[in-house]
Amino acid sequence: MDDFLRQVSEVDWESLCFFSLLAMGIAYMAANASNSVIGWENLSGFWKSVFILEAILFIIQLAIIILIHGKNNWTQIVLTISYVFYTYKMALDPFVAMSMFAKDRGVYEIFAPLIIFIIILGFLLHLFLVWRSFKGIKKERDKANEKRGNQLYVFIPVLFLLVSVTGYIIKNDLLGENDVLAGMGIFTFFYLSLY
Q: Is 182 exposed, middle or buried (0-12, 13-18, 19+ CB in 10 A)?
């Protein structure tokens, strides 16, 4: 059983790492593409520090994946804390990418308050759910776990439908100039459903 849990946790770590690399790579590419309006030299100090911090966090995440092995209490504490931290980082990475797309299109001033509102709303929702979870109502939690297992059979077809419809809309350019807004909607859905 321990080997199975170790394999699952390694897959989760690799998935977190890959998604963060993908999201931040897309954001960096949007900022530095040859046809981009932004350009690295035109980014503010805040956005440059965000990209540098993301690179440092990515290197630390790779080091954790490669170097920390074993089954003692210290490694479990480090892995648990870093797993939670990098899950939050993974949830916020797409918003950096959407910010770069909005900056490139010249509509960042319109989307910045929306992005900040969504992030704050998700944070407050998470605090509420953590508070409710620590309240200690075991019966409700057990019922929710039973329902969650049954909802997986509903969630997978809905996710497949969402991906199919999104792919069709993007492929046929049905959104026009609203593609940043659609991307924000998709990432907001995943951000809020992460909790």
A: middle
